[in-house]
Amino acid sequence: MKNYLLIISIIVFVMSGCNQKKWDYPGTKKQNVVDEYFGTKVEDPYRWLEYDTAADVKTWVAAENVVTDKYLASIPFREALNKKLTAIWNFPKYGTPFKKGNRYFFMKNDGLQNQYVLYTQTGLDAEPEVLLDPNTLSSDGTIALSGMSFSKDGKYLAYQISRGGSDWTELFVMDIETKELLSDHIRWIKFSYAAWLGDGFFYSAFDKPEQGSELSGKNEFKKVYYHKLGDRQDDDVLIYEDKNNPLYGFDVETDKDENFIFLYVSEGTSGNALYIKEAKDIKGKFNLIAGGFDYDYYAIDMIDGKVLMMTNHKAPNYRILLVDPKKPTEKDWQELIPESDAVLSNVSVIGEKIIATYLRNAISVGMVYNANGSLLHEIDFPAIGSVSEFSGNKNSNEAFYAFSSYTYPTTIYKYDVENNVSELFHKSEIDFNTEDYETKQIFFNSKDGTRVPMFVTYKKGIALNGNNPLLLYGYGGFNVSLTPGFSISNLPFIDNGGIYVVVNLRGGGEYGKKWHESGTKMQKQNVFDDFIAAAEWLIENKYTNPEKLAILGGSNGGLLVGACMTQRPDLFKVALPQVGVLDMLRYHLPTIGYAWASDYGTSEDSKEMFEYLKAYSPLHNVKEGATYPATLITTADHDDRVVPAHSFKFAATLQEKAGDENPVLIRIETKAGHGSGKPTAKLIEETTDRWAFTMYNLGMNPKFQ
Question: Which residue of 50, 235, 252, 382 has the fewest CB atoms within a 10 Å radius of its CB?
């Protein structure tokens, strides 16, 4: 009876729309809600959509999905595309191996498994055995392995799972030898992992949220605890808290020898303070190494009793320092490896050597240094592309890394640190001929003359006649670097004449701290200008035209798409904002949104900041009667990072105000979150719908063999 009534209510909801439009959208009710910012009144008629667990919101979600599903089902090649994606997705995928204790570990997906499986083996030639299979934890694959940490002796594994894509994780402990689960169970962890010390570990967690607010309530007063194996969570020792700063974040690490404890304190997504204390006194006072939140400080490892630290303090591209724990203040820091013209991205200590990977024009470069900071050699990578962080141990000469590029499927190499020799360890088994495709890096000038790079990938032999379908992807924020990487999901588009372009926008980390900051707060418009300039360059140089151009971005990239489609709707035919930050006046209020203020600023900061945010906020810049690109907004009901209300309100506003020329749809996934841990089945379904919508609205008639 309940299901019957829900179906009836959806039908009524769909038919009750006051805006009779070509695309038959549900009629979304409006309410008289007005906020005042520094004397300026701002209407928010769809505020009720923020209450995602309310019955009327659930009815609206179901009604929107009915409209979207009907549209997508009408696309003639959708089923064939789904079959093609399923077929090409079905090949074994391996993670980079690593060694803990006397065992090796690696992740593997046989092809279409919903979640990767953790394997272990006693030697590289030994038969691998399953240690942990997340696919057995749920029937639909929506429980994912979200983190793991091994005890120093390799006896125990602390692993974390997330349910339905939420950022909340639960922690369990396994005896690796017996594969038995211990009694330990810890909840309400978010953005934290176990840091082992002896027969226990540190972790950071929030207090249990109020019932009903788990996915939307503000996350405050994070705390650091120490958990001893066998204890209940209620008995864990409180190590650190700050009652005066509810929005501060805390995380703890231990060095690999477990002699020191490091405390990271942050108030946003970039910049942190770093503290240290000896591990023999876990309740003792932490000593400050570096304070404030203007710079990043990362403790990498210990070398000769000193902290190997990576920082962008007085080095926008990062440098490596040595810090004496007994004299940790800045005046006693020793520079080991100075800043270079490339951006330092990762540092590992393996085989008593320092392996540093850099980005030069968003392309990976690897260097090996002695413990005294002298350069030994550059690592010869197989092509122009990206490498993962090196895995290995301080007392072993053996390391592993993964290499990838847009036309180079992920390949794993074993690396001899002493002799600087890379050896193929595992080649991708995908049926893909790299010689059929081409990637080139192009530099163009943005609106203010800034030189910006982008990677352009297509099938060889394509004619640049200005009529090619093209998808433009970007992010541009939070110091995140977009580097070359292989994606099987792009092949159906590229194989049908499409061009795939990734732009390295300001706001990212490709050129260090200055590049990042030039796309933040009162300079955020630079990011959108870069993206628009990329599109204009591609049109001017005959790669595409506005009727063949689609734009895609997720999270902060969803903001990018939302801002650009509202600023320049004439420039794009298709817009795909995924899990986007779209209400810039209220983004900081739910869950962990306040942490993004370091990039965005907030509407509460000042009148000037409020006006700047409102001027580009996608939700607040939809114009009545304007023709916007064909838009497919995607979000998920368990997204507790960028809550779905952003997408709900943006979709309702577009459907109310936009002209009828192009469809505006929203696809709302269930039992899924911001993206991490999404099961393969859902990934294929979502990718199918995204490419079907894109190709159909770009006028493509794709063939799939």
Answer: 235
Catalytic residue among 313, 516, 638, 674: 674
Confirm whether 313 is a catalytic residue. no
Q: Length of the chain in residues, anyone?
A: 705
DSSP 8-class letter at 685? H
178 C-beta neighbours (distance < 10 Å), count: 7
Radius of gyration from C-alpha coordinates of the chain: 25
Instruction: Give the pLDDT band (50/70/90) at residue 672.
Output: confident
Counting Cα atoms < 13 Å in the Cβ hemisphere of 177 gives 6
Question: If residue 668 lies in a helix (H) or strand (E), which one and from where to where?
Answer: strand 664-669
What DSSP element (H or E) covers 664? Answer: strand 664-669
- The C-alpha angle with vertex 645 and arms to 639 and 649, in degrees rounded to 5, equals 145
> Is residue 219 predicted with pLDDT exceeding 50?
yes
191 DSSP 8-state letter: S
Domains of the chain, with CATH numbers?
A: 2-86+432-697 (3.40.50.1820), 347-429 (no CATH)
Strands 237-240 and 169-175: unpaired
Name which of 463, 466, 472 is nearest 497 in CA terms. Answer: 463
The predicted structure's pLDDT at residue 1? 33
Phi/psi for 330 (5° steps) reads -55, -35
Residue type, 555: S
Strand bridging mode 129-132 / 117-121: antiparallel
DSSP annotation string for 202-268: EEEEPPPPPTT-TTTS-----EEEEEETT--GGGPEEEE--TT-TT-EEEEEE-TTS-EEEEEEESS
What is the per-residue pLDDT for 640? 86
In sequence order, what E strands does 40-132 have? 40-43, 93-94, 98-100, 103-109, 117-121, 129-132
Q: Is the predicted pLDDT of residue 504 greater than 90, yes or no?
A: yes
**What is the residue-wise DSSP string for 252-317?**
EEE-TTS-EEEEEEESSSS--EEEEEETT-TTSPPEEEE-SSSS-EEEEEEETTEEEEEE-TT-TT
CA distance 122 to 325: 36
pLDDT of residue 17: 41
Q: How many whole angstroms separate alpha carbon 23 and alpha carbon 601?
A: 37
Residue 644 per-residue DSSP state? T
Residue 3 has pLDDT above 80, yes or no: no
Q: Which two tokens stand for residue 606?
A: 């000042």
Neighbours of 693 (CB within 10 A): 25
Structural tokens at position 24: 């038959």
- pLDDT (mean) for 41-70: 96
SS3 15: helix
Side-chain half-sphere exposure of 78, counting CA atoms within 13 A? 19
DSSP output for 338-350: ---SSEEEEEEEE
Identified catalytic residue from 405, 555, 603, 647: 555
435: three-class secondary structure by DSSP:
helix
Q: Does residue 516 have an active-site annotation?
A: no
Those residues whose C-beta lies under 8 Å from the C-beta of residue 235, and which sit 6 or more positions away, are none
